Amino acid sequence: MLELQPVVVRDVRIPFISMVILMVKWALAAIPALFLLILVGTAASGLVAGLFLRMLPTGTGIVSPLPRRSVVDQASCERDCKDSGGAADCYAACERLYGHTP
What is the CA radius of gyration of the chain? Predict the structure, then answer.
């Protein structure tokens, strides 16, 4: 029957050129592995950020900021309020958007 014997490696002799070739191969193999790690890290951080952003209350300005209104929008809001006969809710909407009533 075969008897197992412990082995201890005391020295490895490898030519310098073979060591350089091995290290170049390791470096080239690390490039796709790095891209894969970046892809996994980006997906994980996007998932975590998405989960935390869902927990924020709406209307904070972070999740759904109100778009800036232009002067044309302000003028059309004022015109619409005057055309509607001066409805109070129209004036309230203009007040919210532009800070003043028409």
Answer: 34
Are residues 77 and 97 in contact, defined by beta-carbon separation less than 8 angstroms?
yes
- Residue closest to 81 by CA, chosen among 100, 66, 94: 94
CA distance readout (Å), 54 to 46, 51, 58, 92: 12, 5, 9, 29
Measure the CA angle with vertex 51, ends 49 and 53; round to 5°: 65
Domain ranges of the chain: 15-56, 69-102
Q: pTM of the entire structure? A: 0.41
> How many residues would you count in the chain?
102
11-49 per-position pLDDT tens digit = 989 999 999 999 999 999 999 999 999 999 999 999 998
Compute the C-alpha angle 77/78/84, nearest 5°: 85
> Angle between the 71-83 and 88-98 helix axes, to the nearest 10 degrees?
170
